[in-house]
Each structure stands twice: as C-alpha cells, then as structure tokens.
Amino acid sequence: MKPNPIMLEVFKNKLSSVSEEMGVSLNRTAFSPNIKERRDFSCAVFDDKGDMIAQAAHIPVHLGSMPMSVKEAIKHHQFEEGDMVVLNDPFKGGTHLPDITIVAPVFIKESDKPVFFVANRAHHSDVGGMSSGSMPLATSIFQEGIIIPPLKLVKKGEIDKQLLSFFLNNVRTPYEREGDFLAQIMANITGVKRMKELIDKYSIDTVEFYAKNLINYSESIMRKTIKQIPDGTYSFEDFMDGDGIEKEKIKIAVKITIDKDKAVLDFTKTDRQVEGSINAVYSITLSAVLYVFRSLVKEDIPTNAGCLKPIEVITKKGSLVDAAFPASVVGGNVETSQRIVDVILGALSKALRGKIPAASQGTMNNVAIGGIDERTGEPFTYYETLGGGMGASSNLKGESAIHSHMTNTLNTPIEALEYSYPFMVEEYSIRKNSGGIGKFCGGDGLIRAIKLMSDAEITVLSERRLLAPYGLNGAKSGKKGKNLIVRNNKTEEMPHKFNTKVKKGDVLIIETPGGGGYGKENS
Amino acid sequence: MEIVGVDTGGTFTDFIYKHENKWGVYKILSSPHNPAQSLLEGLKHTLKTSEFKIIHGSTVATNAILERKGAYTALITNKGFEDVIEIGRQNRMQLYNLHYKRQPQLVSKELRFGLDCRINSKGEIIKDIDETELEQIKRVLEKIKPESIAVCLLFSYLNPKHELFIEQSLEQLKLPISLSHRILSEFREYERASTTIINAYVSPKMKRYIKNIIDDIGGNELRIMQSNGGSISAEVAMQEPVRTILSGPAGGAVGAYEIGKMAGYTKLITFDMGGTSSDVALIDNKLPLAFESKIADFPVKVPMIDIHTVGAGGGSIAYLDAGGSLRVGPESAGADPGPICYGKGDRITVTDANLYLKRLVPEYFLGGNMRLDEEKLKMHFENMAKEVGLDEIELAEGILDVANASMEKAIRVISVERGFDPREFVLFSFGGAGGMHAAFLAKLLHIPKVFVPQNPGILSAIGMLMADIIKDYSLTVMLKNESTDFKQIKSLFKPLDERGIADLEKEGISKSNIVLEHYLDMRYLGQSYEIMVPYDEDYTNRFHALHKQNYGYSDENKKIEIVNIRLRAKGMPEKPEFAVMEYDKTTPDADAILGTKQVVFDSKEHKTTIVAREKLKHGNVVESPAIVVEYSSTIVLPPGSTGVVDKFGNIIIDVEGGSNEA
C-alpha cells in the first residue's frame, strides 16, 4: 500500500507534536537551571524495535545516541504497562554520565508487547564523581560519577524507591536530581498518553503504517541528498590538542565513500583511546555523523532512523571515537564531538566543493569556577561554555562569537553573572581579526575577561589552543584560542585543559578560536 | 464627539467609527509607502464632525525594522562591551544551517562607542566618566551625523547617573536620545540594549509620521495602540515608539476580549487567519501578556499581548515535496501574484481549495466586486491531482486538512502545552478567512463552540476603540525575599506609582479613573526565569502556588528572589457601547436566504444554504450545511453544526454532534 500524501503530512505534524509536547512537559516541570534554561535535553518517539520516528530538535549531540539507549533498554528488560527504564552508562547506550535517559513503552489492549516507545534524555548537573558538576579532568569512568546500567526505575506505575534512594545518595544535589527525575517521568507519561490518543483516533494499523512511512520518507530524502554528492572516496584527518593528562596531538581520521545514494564513513585510522576524559563512545560519533548529514538536507524533515539508514559508520573499538570501558568519556561529548564534525566536513569539502564551510571554532570552551563567595560566605559553582568563530563559506564570511555544530546553549548575561557570583566582567567582546583570512574570512572568536572578587578554583576544558581550525581553498586557518590568567599584573598562558587555584583580584581571560577562512585572499 | 479606530496593518486600512450612537465601517486600500496618506484620505470619508478622537494602530515602527528603513543610529555603552549587542546570547536560530548568518545589526560596528566607566551590581560607581573621552566621542558624532542615539550602560537601572550625564553632554547635538534605564529598567544587558536600540532606530521615523497626522487633524486627540493592548498618547508614542512594535495583532486580541466579555464568554481561543499566516492567542479571563518577543531576531522586552503565529493562511501554497508528502506553506502567494483564482497566480493555495470545494461563493466575495476564476482552477487541480495520485476533491480537502493540522498544532502550543484544556474555551474566529476553517478546527480540538463577531474583518480596529490606556513600568530590584517585606516593597513602588499617575494625568485621565496594578517578578534562588505574581500581603504564598501551577512543583523551604517590580497603570476611558438587537425569531427572514449550492463536505456534495449575514437577526438559527456570506468574510457551517445569532449580532456555532473527522 502506498502512503497517502495528505495523511503522511498530517502524521508528520502529529508525531512531532508528541515529542514536542514531551519536551514542553519536561521543561515545565524540571527543577534545575541546566534543563530549564540551557535546554540541555531531548525527547523522541520510537517504534517497537527502538528505531526513532520523530524527535524534537533540541541538542544535536543527542541525535544518534537516543535510539541506542532505547535498544539497550529493550535488550535488557521485558516491559510491562507502566514500566520505565533508566540508564546513563556510556557503554550501554549512554553518552556521558550526566546525560540520563528514561525509556517508557506504549501498550495497547490488543498486544502484549509494546507497540511504540517514548524516551527522553536530560543533562543532570551532578551525578557524583570526583568534582562538583561532574565534568572532571578524569582518567577513568569511575571518577566521573555513578554509572546506571539499564534498570527499571518505574514498575507498573510505581517508582522503585530503593533504587531512587540509592542513586540520590551518590550525588551532591539529591533534591534537585529527584525533581528532574520526576519531570523526566512526567514527560514520558505525556508521550505515552499522546501516542495512545493517536492510536485511539486512527487505529494501531494506521499509526504504525505512517510511522514506518515517515522513516521511509526521511530515508528517501536523505538518499536523494547523498546522491547529489559525487561518487568517490574522500579522506580527512585532524587532531585534538590533547587529553590534558598524557598525550598531545591525538588523531581523528575519516574516509568517506560515497556510492550513489549510500555513504560509508570509516574512522578506523583514528588514534587509540587516551587516559584523559576526551574519549567519545560510538553513539557520539554517530550523532556527529547524523548532525552533518542532516545539515546537508535542504528540506525540513523529521530527524529519525531513516536519516541513518543509507549511512554506515565504521570504527575501531578502543579508539578515540569508539571508546571502550573503562575509559573516561565526559569530554568526548563536549569537545571530541566537535572535532569529529570537523573531519567529516573536511572530507566532504573535497566532494562538495564550494558547499562546505571551513572549520568552526571546534570547541565549546568549558569553564567551571567554584569557591566561597566572600559577599555571602556561601559556596558557589559556575559552569558555562563560550562561543567562537564559525568557518567561512564559499560566498559568506563566517559568523562571529557564536556556538557552532554540536551545541547551541545560551550565555549568562553579565548583569546576571555579577549578581550571582563574585565576578566582575572586564571585557566581553568579539576577538578582532581572529577569523582566518581568505576571500571570505572566518568568523571571529570572542574574549571574556572575568576578574575574581573571591578566591576560587578554575577548571577549563578547551580545544584549538595548539592546533588551529582549518581554512579551505587556500584561505588561512582561524586563530587558535588562548587561556590566560593574570596574577599580580603578570599574565600567564595556561594549557588547553587545566585546573588551578586563583586569588581575589586575579583575572581569567578566555580568547576563543576564530573560524577558518574560505578561498585565497584577493582572488 | 466622534471616535474613530484606524488599523493600517493589512492590504486595507480599516476604519470603524461611532458618531451619536451610530456605527460606521470603512475600508480603503492601504498606501504602504506612506501609511498616513490612506489614513487621512479615509478620515475624510468617516468624519462627520470637527470634534473627534482617533485611536490608531500603526505598523510604521514594525515596518521600519522589518524593511531596515530606520534611522542611522549610534550606540554608546561601556568600553569593552561594544559587541554585546552583536554577540547576543551566542546561539544560532537554526540548528542545522552550516551557513548560518545572523540578521545584520541595526547599529554597525563603527557607530558603537565604548566609554571607560563602570557601575557594579550594587549600583556603586567603580569608575566615573572621563569627560574628555566623552568630548571626543561627541566630536566624532558631529562628524558622522547619526540621526538617533541609544545609550545603554551596565547596571544603569540601579544608578542612572552616567546615562543621564551622557544625555546632558550630548544635548547640543539636538538628536533624539534613548536611554536604556528609561526604556527598560530591567537587568540583562543584551535584551535592554536591543530594546533601547530598536527605540532609537525607529523614533525619527515615527516622529515624522505622527507629526504628519497631528498637523492634519487640527488639535483633535490622537492615540496610538501599543503592543500591550492599551493605547498611549501620540506624544508618548513619539518618545517610546518601541512600545508600538507588533501592536497590530494586539488590537484583534483586545477586540475579541471585549466583545467576548460583552456576549458572556471570557475563556476564548482567538483565531485570526490572514493571507500568509494565522495568529492564535488564549484568553483566560484576561489578556495574555508576554514580556519578551522578537522582531527580525532582535529581542524586544516590552510587555506584549502573547500571540502565537503559524505560517499557514489563505495564500499558503500547496506542493508535493521530494519525499512524497503534501505540504501547505509556509511559502505564500501573498497579495501578488495571489491565489490562482484571483487571476495571476499559478500555484494552488488554501483559498483555491476552499473555492474548488465551493465553500467560497464567488458571487458574494467582497460583495461580488472581485471576479474569481473557477475555470483556471479546474486545470490546475487536475494536474496536481495527477501528480499527487488522488482525485481532485481528495486533493482539495487534503490541502485544507494539512492547513488545519498546522493551525491545530499552533492552538495546542498555547493551550494543551501550557496546561489548558481547549474544551473549556470558545474558538473566537475573525479575519476574512477564519470563518471557513473555524468549525473544522474546533472539531479537531474538541472545542464545542465557535464565535464569529460582527465585522470579523475589522476586529483589530474595533479593539483599538475598546482599548484601555495602559502604561507599564518595571524596575529590577533583585531582593532576597527573606530580608524584605510588604512594606519595604511598597516604598519601592512609590516612585513608580507617582510616575504612573502623573503620566496618566497627562493623558487626560482623572485620578479617580486610574487603576494601579502591582506585580512582582519572583523566582527561586538560582533560577533564571521569573514568574509574575500579583503584589499583595500574600505575595510569597501566591508565588509558591503560581509556581506549582506553572511548573508542577513548589518548595516552601527554598529561598526566593524578587527580581523586578512591575506597575501597570490603567486609565479606563469611556468605552463605546454596542447596540442590542431585539429578539426576532428562530427562522431567518426569507431575504436572508440567498439560495442553495452544492458544496463538498467529507468527499460528498451537500445541498447547502447560502445566507446573507446582514439580514440575520437576534435569535435566528442557521441550520447546516450553510455558508454565511458578508462583505469581507465567509463562514462555513459544515453538516452537523448549528449557528445562532445573539443579541449583538455575533454568530455562535455549535459544532458538536458533527463527525469526528481527521
């Protein structure tokens, strides 16, 4: 049977509404600022095998990894009506420990097996581990927090109090965590309810038929998109500055083979996993691949399992892009994911000349500052990521001071910052002339200078401090980023990843990288 | 005295006027290049006396931004923070666009000046202004000759001294200066700067426009509609034109609110279907307000009626996409070329689908003055039906189904997603095309009743006549709840109250007719979003309760911050009253029935009555299927629904009992 074009469009609306309404519910009821304001969460609907049908567009890095969580949940558990499974284990469907996923089945009377699943993932601001905020410079997963394998958190509608209390006893902010968990459960209840309403209205056969056809729909458009890439093999490699512990210049390599409407991405030439926390599990690599290919699609399509069907991703277990237990992985999500995007785009730039931009800043510039606020005597912790330059395109200057690729979180206003923390912001500006020079220049990075008004401890996880974001077609690279600390009027350059103590009056200056340029200057 | 409401928002400039208990309506083609022209021209037709008052909704400020035809504007801010307005919140509006480009800035780099001065979060001056540095900036300004200046310094709302000093120093330049602490006394520097810049950017243009009208109306009163649903004097509108941004749809919401209330309905979902988009808003006993909106991606933080827009309207184009799905919009045929049936277009639109199913009656469309080409339509439907693989009727109904699905989604966003059950509301439909879709949309959402007011095509202008005079004030105070109390907050409100009363008295409102509403923006410590809580002795408990209602939880043990205080000063002008019709009878007069026609519903032709709205009387019942026609709108009553005319001439359609179609 052929899908009716009208019903296909109507179901596209209906199913995306389900995931969007889950997102609204989660956002409304969540407790922590990280979920409410930075919107660090995603919601999606899956078929009975765990293939994604529709996702609310929130965070690119969750894209490819959500289905793996659902599939792991299905693999480990027999579901009954009202059950929900929780997990964060990066080696069993997770990405890094702060991202916790909860999966719920949709049952109907006529079937004793789930007909659909809904799931949501949220970034919890603390899951235990060696440092507050759970984003440490770690060397093993055990230092990063509590590991949750797929476990039934809700059984027939009842929350497992013992399991919950075990978890809450292992985190620094149990109260907030419990609130966020309840919000995640509520979001799934909303999703299940909406799916049942759809089934009641249209019958299970119709909903299943159009769910399947929406996956086919996205697949067919993705295939058309890949078909427009000339057949051939395109390779590219780039490097991470280092893991902050043992090693610098860590290679990520990809070989992309385009064969008509199929793409194979082979990452096997990538370096082995490292001791420091920048290892990426397979699902992060998958997310980066999906992000890039989804960005090539011009149409507004549902991001679902169909998008990945024409794409094969080959990695070597135990490598930087497919980390094996017990690697530390917390930075893989925020830093390595950006470089994976850089190499995929670099390879594609050889195939799609003029259509792929030069490298963007390639980092999220994670800054964490903690200490005791002298004004109140209360402890404080501050975490933020900073934007930088975007790569230039063949006909466009790169945008400046902006988040690119795998993240899109907001900054904290200066006035809000100075109310809440013992900081005085001395400068927040665009870092002039930091974009790579070319026919079209890369976007400029930014400068954020924060004077500490109390003693504090600073942790920075950043990249592109040693190796610059590449330019394309004869243009220059963007300027490398810089981490500086001014103590007693003496400026000290800090490494790409560091942890240090500072005194009241010291100034932290982060200069973020510029984007690469495009095309020879004056050409 | 005569009062006139004028809305210049659309293709037509709409007038509604009341003179000695007589109402009149007038429409004239808008003159977008110079909106004052059609306004003044129309007034000639509507004014019956030399004493009158005009309330006007203007799109001059909005269009100046959308078309980037505002003033050459300079910005003065703190040194080191000149780029704050360009960085914004460092996010991109499109997630999957590798070539994302921000909107070009309203103030370019060379027009942004940094002054080495600083105030901290307690309002203390850390570094004073260096007058020679300011002198230098002044000399540069004299050379580059901007037309308007915006000033936004960090923490100026806590201590305006530096901003005031700059204003004073630049007085000789004789330029309009917008100070951020006056435009928006709230924290978050980017949003405050953006709002201030927008004000500066549009103010010279707005001034010229309003002066032009004032010069022509010889001392009569001119009031301007704001986006918060109230009006302000022309004088204030020239100073603070940012308050008129996006005010067009506000008139419609106010009109719906007032007319609904009069007819006994206070829970409304408004639905205004236009050519390229549809606006929806949820009114739960009061007008919904939002405190931050965007225009061309720039934040505008002035209170606005909370209206949600979706890109589906009468002109939305239908096409089969690359994956075989039938899409409708967001691309629109607009006014030019317009739908196929208007003559010039060649892509099928929602309006064409309505006509193809005969739900639009050509003989009565715009009083029969505009020819609709049904022949041309036939060929296009045949071709597209072949392409899509359906028959023509299925295609036409499908186009409407898809358009309705996206409008349904928009209504779900403002109702279900915010914890409201649409079944408790009435769908208040206006705009020219709304009445053709409202009953179907109501069914999809299980809304039992549709309300179509008199003159649905000019509801915005009616709303302007009914609007209160409203002035909003706010101030960031950032207080810990445990270390303050009702009395202390009251003393903080005092200067705002005085300002509000003085401003309204200037607007000609006597003190006894002024209502002051006080609110607090509160949050739990550590959050960065606030809830607006009515300020009375019980404000702390109210906050917990509202937080629970909005976000599903509350916690009495958590510390609370009071972020902003807000004053809404309202002057209640005398409102025009509508005439009440005498009860007639259930059966409409014979002359109200214009004939019958075969119209398609649920893939079948139905014999359908064509009814003249102007002949309907109080108590008349319109049996379905029927199409009620009037000059600027068409109302479709599908099989199973029933319409009743109330004493104000509104039609209330009961959609229950109809089939539950997709």
Describe this entry's structure for a reader:
The complex is a heterodimer of chains A (523) and B (662). With 523 residues, chain A is of the alpha+beta class. Chain A folds into two domains: 5-219, no CATH class; 357-523, no CATH class. Chain A is 28% helix and 25% strand. Chain A has ten helices and 20 strands. Chain A has helices spanning 5-29, 33-36, 66-76, 161-168, 174-202, 204-227, 282-296, 305-308, 330-351, 414-420; strands at residues 41-47, 52-55, 84-87, 99-106, 116-123, 151-155, 158-159, 232-242, 248-259, 262-266, 311-314, 366-373, 378-385, 423-431, 445-452, 456-461, 482-487, 490-494, 497-502, 507-511. In chain A, the strands form four sheets. Chain A has a seven-stranded antiparallel beta sheet, with helices on both faces. Chain A has a five-stranded antiparallel beta sheet with strand order 14-15-20-17-18, covered by helices on one side. In chain A, strands 8-9-10-11 form a four-stranded mixed beta sheet. In chain A, α1 runs antiparallel to α5 (174-202). The longest helix of chain A has 29 residues, at 174-202. The model of chain A has no long low-confidence stretch (mean pLDDT 94). With 662 residues, chain B is an alpha+beta fold. Chain B folds into three domains: 66-206, Rossmann fold, CATH 3.40.50; 264-468 and 573-662, no CATH class; 469-571, no CATH class. In chain B, β20 (316-320) and β21 (326-332) form a beta hairpin. In chain B, α2 packs across α7 and α12 packs across α13 (434-444). Chain B is globular, with a radius of gyration of 27 Å. Classes of the chains: A alpha+beta (523), B alpha+beta (662). Chains A and B meet through α1, α5, α6, α7 and α10 of A and α3, α7, β21 and α12 of B.
